Amino acid sequence: MSAKYHAIPPIAPSVDIYPVPITALAFDPVSDTLWSGSNTGRIVAHHSIEGVRGVAFPVGGDLAVKDIIATDSNVRAFGVSGNGIGAWTRGGVNKWYYRSNSSITAFSNNSGSLFYAATSGQELLSINAHTGDVLRSTPVTSIYNQLVDTHFGLACGSSDGYVRIHDSRRSLDVVHTIQAHLNGVQGLEAGSNFLCTIGMGTRQGRPFPDPLVKVYDIRTMRALPPVPFSNGPAFINRIPTRSSTIVVTSNEGLINVVDVTNPTDSEFHQLASASYVTTAAVSPTGSYMAFGDADGIIHLLTAAEEGSDLPLNGFDGQPVEWADPPEELPTIEWIDTTPLNAIGMPYYTTTLLSSWTPKFLSRDIFCPPPPKIPQQILTTMKINDNVAYASLPKELRGRRNVVPSEPKQRRSRFRHQLIRRGSEPETPTYEYDPEDIPRMYRKVEIEYSKFGVEDFDFGWYNHTELSGLETHILNSYTNPLLQLLHYTYPIRNLAKSHITTDCRRENCLFCELGFVVRMLEDARGTNCQSSNFCKTLGFLAQASNLIELIDYGRESADLNHAHMIQSCHRFLVDHLSLEGNAYPHNPPLLQQYGDSQQPAPSPIAQLVGITARNTVTCTSCHTTREKDQMMHVIDLVYPRKAATNNPEDGTDFPSIVRNSLLRHTSHKASCPACNRQHVSFESQRSIPNYALPPILALNASVYSEENHNFWRDARRQTFLKPTLELRGQVHGQDEASTVLYELRGFVVQVDAKHKQGPTHLVALIKVPEAEATRQGQDDSPWYIFNDFSVQNIAEDEALSFPASWKVPTVLYFERVDRRSQLDFSSLQKEIDASILSQDTNISMNRDPNFIKHECLSEDELPKPGTLIAIDAEFVLMQQEETEYRSDGTKTVIRPARLSLARVSVLRGNGPKEGLPFIDDHIHTSEMIVDYLTEFSGIQFGDLDPQTSRYTLTPLKVVYKKLRLLVDRGCIFIGHGLSKDFRIINIFVPPEQVIDTVDLYYLHNRQRRLSLRFLAWFILKENIQTDTHDSIEDALTALRLYKAHLQFESEGIFDKKLEELYKEGRQYNFKPPQMQGSPPIRPTSGPGIATFGMAQTLPYAPSPDFTAMQMYPRFFAPVPQPGPFQPTWRNR
Q1: Rounded distance, CA 222 to CA 96, Å?
Q2: In this protein, which residues make up the domain named USP (predicted)?
Q3: Which pLDDT score, from 0 to 100, does residue 919 have?
Q4: Cβ within 8 Å of residue 276, ≥6 positions away
Q5: E strand residue ranges, 975-1065
Q6: Gap between the Cα atoms of 1131 and 1126, Å rounded
Q7: Which residues lie closer than 8 Å to 59 by C-beta, 6 or more apart?
């Protein structure tokens, strides 16, 4: 090569700007400018190699900028959530913006008056580069995510791994097609006569970065020798001044500059980045290369000589355009005659009060207007002797001719207001309209008071013994799918068994699913949240880039939840099959796997897997070949004929499911047997009855109005039935017998069309527990799970699809004859208790002086009723978002998100009472916004395996320890445990919790007391003087509980409680500063202390085990005036 690249100082974000990942880069061809797009949806101009910050502007939406192309006249870009593409001047002024019904996935690099853009709706748009008008829309066969304009046509890389060349000079017809990769094209570059691609391959049936850069001769589309890149190519760029030279970059920062005609002529570089590379770009002259990373840093390589002042574009071009300064506000002389419109109006997004609507009109609720007669009655009405009559439909029985008997009062959604407000009268009012969404289906929102989310009355929405799942967390759209998996018994049993195994994955969806189903089992109507599951799902989805992350409250109004949940469903089932696979030691769940000499497949594959034999036949020479394939999720395929729900037409539900299973398709390819090109092949699956799975998982794939018409109710009949009969097929011959399936539940999208709330998902499930306790035909086992709102509904209502607002997405059927055949006896049932006796530290630099706990011995393992004291510390992962109104009131839009950082569990009785047996700091890979050191004692580096001096443990291991303590019936003692358990995301039965915040509480005072004040008043100790320590707090709660037992035995507890509140009012419930009392802090040293109260410790501590080594203040009384003076001594 003629020039070698070397690194120059990078462009780093400003110190006062929070680092944001760089997601797109582009060099300006005519000015000394580098354009960068960030993860927040903004584009910033950096001028010269010093990176002087210039103009900045948004591209639409608040998610990442996907791509930027700078031309001679403008800057084109689009974002992930913008649903469109726009062009801006170099000064940041928007020239045009085209908004698409489907999200933009890619656009081409044309510099003329015409360019091309691809959408997720599988269409290719021809757009005028000067006006943004769409000149032509061409349907395509796949979703294009790469578009490159070449002199031979438009090269398109698709998500199915194919590269298609469209004739851009005529009708955009496909002239060449090649399969470059098996699982999607991730990068595409073309130059001179070469076409280079990178993408995803397959390894052990899973997507994997293809280690080869595929090279093709674009003139004949003939494959040339590929370029190996073992680190996994993530980005590919072409050096414009070298026709056959490309730049291949990995996420780890390894760069290979290689000539595709001579791969031995290469140049390697390694970026000095502490994070991973997120984007790459090459300047028009090839003099510079830029690489953005997740820390917001832009790394630069240059081929220019050191010390030269070469512009980024390679020459002195157009002058830099700077942002215009804002105009100064005019000076207004305020007098009596100054018009108010001289002040101007602020930006607003809500309707102004001056926009009068009928909603502001007063209405007497005691005299409502007569209700309208429903249309379904009018259509069947008959008139005889001027008297109209009609039969009353079933769905309106008991709901007509009902008027309010008193003014309707809105019940408060907050617990602290329940005493001051009355209950809401049940006033049934109903007017049938198929397009009107029933209240039970509408989206529910969590309201936040000044006391936080814990004050929200979830019981207002759920009067059943079935638990709902909360929202306001990332990826909470998966709540209905989790409920569906939970109430599918075989999957629930597998998930519960998996958490008892020794799973070594730090991020395991199967483990998190098991924890969620255990929590839902134990909660019995108490609301739960799946924050750990959603966080793991987001981590794995972002790592594999297979599904999009959805942040609650920030999704776009046009987001298709149906497509998202079906993609997530396939992703989740595939991951569960992979994570639960212990081949060749998988337990056989069915006799057919136990009798076979071959090892059983993964447990999930035994439940939902369908082993099909695909037969492909050449229509020319009739040569056939067969191949077995395993499918987990079936996508429904609908016939092109009109929906009649007739089995003879193949438009009823069983026929559609059967045709989707057998899937008769045809395609064209080359036949090696008859040596003919573009021969038609016909393929069809053969699935015998025994291969039909115990659990049939379906994706409804309703993406159009025509497909939804199949599901609509017709002639008072529903398309979906509670049972399903399927008949297998072998070599084109139908089986003689049928297989009966029972509908277990399904997930639907509620499409409000922006009239009655945003689009969301709900689950309709036939609950097995309700079936077992069903007392009569009128008791319905069907329930609707609308996040944390749970209601019982009739089966007809569940199966009905009355209008377009109810869209099916995921369905689960259970095979009836396999229920009794499934054998779960070989599954592990309990967590290995030895985990409490093991050192689970992963820190590489743990200091022995900071080890404050002693693991349990085998004879100390907890039994039912064992007392333990617990406390946890947390760090802030996301700031609270609030909205301030003009009247000074504040509304919490989204609460702060905390994450477990440290948990300490102490022995509650026995000879080592008060000694911690768990004191783990929690490893987290997420970005921490605030360590909350003042309240948590956690500092920077304490949660990093490379630098932590403490016992550092993965979150899943700590959760498994706590889960084991709950399962073994331990009694948890602590202060404010409800909030701690909520953030930890674990449910502990109330009978296993002793909370000192409730022990020392008077209901008529409406005030709960802090641990610090209780310690000062009851124990005569001053704690939390500098920072919080979880061992100290847990020990204090334990001692408060023991003091409570002492007061109760003496019969003076009520008197002490009154004195406590009386003294609290005097000091405003805050302990005064104690003279001569240093803060209680654990001393460093290898000694391990015993903590406890003298009156509850009938033992003499051994010389090598003294409490005074760590917490001497707990064993010496401190003189302090007060209402009473207890004396405790260490015996």
Answers
A1: 40
A2: 467-816
A3: 95
A4: 251, 252, 253, 293, 294
A5: 993-995
A6: 16
A7: 37, 41, 42, 43, 65, 77, 78, 79, 82, 86
pLDDT in tens, 463-494: 888 999 988 788 888 999 999 999 999 999 99
Pairing between strand 695-699 and 634-635? parallel
Q: Is the omega angle on the peptide bond into residue 584 within 30 degrees of 0, that is, cis?
A: yes
What DSSP assignment string belongs to 21-42? Answer: -EEEEEE-SSSSEEEEEETTSE
Among residues 266, 195, 280, 273, the alpha carbon closest in space to that of 229 is found at 266
| pTM summary value | 0.60
Residues 810 and 695: their CA atoms lie apart, in Å, by 13
Q: Residues 943-977, buried b or exposed e (16+ Cβ, 10 A)?
A: bbeeebbbbbbbbbbbbbbbbbbbbbebbbbbbbb
Alpha-carbon distance of 349 to 796, in angstroms, equals 41
Alpha carbons within 13 A on the beta-carbon side of 992: 23
Q: Report CA dihedral (1035, 1041, 1042, 1043) to the nearest 10 degrees.
A: 110
| Contact indicator for 440, 798 with CB cutoff of 8 Å | no
- Collect the ranges in the chain with pLDDT lower than 70: 1-3, 15-17, 345, 353, 355-371, 394-434, 449-455, 544-557, 594-596, 643-645, 648, 754-757, 775-778, 1073-1131
Distance CA 52, CA 298 (A): 12
pLDDT tens digit sequence for 936-984? 889 999 999 999 999 999 999 999 999 999 999 999 999 999 889 988 8
- The pLDDT > 90 percentage for the chain reads 39
pLDDT value, residue 1005? 74
**Which residues are known binding-site members?**
871, 873, 980, 1033
Indicate the Cα dihedral angle 472, 474, 476, 477, nearest 10°: 120
Which pairing describes strands 971-974 and 993-995: parallel, antiparallel, or unpaired?
Answer: parallel
Residue positions forming the annotated binding site for a divalent metal cation: 871, 873, 980, 1033
Single-letter residue type at 966: V
CA 312, 318, 320, 323 torsion: positive or negative? negative
Position 965 scores a pLDDT of 95
DSSP tag of 7:
E
pLDDT number for residue 879: 86
| Cβ density class 651-688: b for 16+ within 10 Å, e for less | bbbbbbbbebbebeeeeeeebeeeeeeebebebbbbbe
Q: Between the CA of residue 821 and those of 422, 490, 825, what are the distances in Å?
A: 53, 11, 12
Give Cα separations from 172 to 74, 113, 165 (angstroms).
Answer: 25, 17, 9
Task: Count Cα atoms within 13 angstroms, Cβ side, for 761.
Answer: 28
Which secondary-structure segment (H or E) carries 107? strand 104-107
One-letter identity of residue 649: D
Alpha carbon 632 to its chain's center: 22
Return d(Cα 201, Cα 210) in angstroms, integer: 5
961 by DSSP, 3-state: which?
helix
Q: Which residues contact 374 (CB under 8 A, 6 or more apart)?
A: 393, 396, 431, 432, 433
Instruction: Identify any residues that bridge with 104 across adjacent strands, giving them in sequence order.
Output: 119
CB 630 within 8 A of CB 605: yes
699's CB contacts (< 8 A; 6+ apart) are 566, 569, 570, 633, 634, 635, 636, 809, 810
DSSP state of 168: T
% of the chain beyond a pLDDT of 70? 85
Gap between the Cα atoms of 723 and 743, Å rounded? 6
> 53-61 long-range CB contacts below 8 Å, 24 or more apart?
53/14, 54/320, 54/321, 54/322, 54/323, 55/90, 55/91, 55/92, 55/321, 55/322, 55/323, 56/92, 56/323, 57/88, 57/92, 57/94, 59/86, 60/84, 60/86, 60/97, 61/556
Q: What pLDDT digit, counting tens, does each position of 850-872 carry?
A: 999 999 998 999 999 999 999 99
Place of tokens 């002693």: 854
- If residue 416 lies in a helix (H) or strand (E), which one and from where to where? none
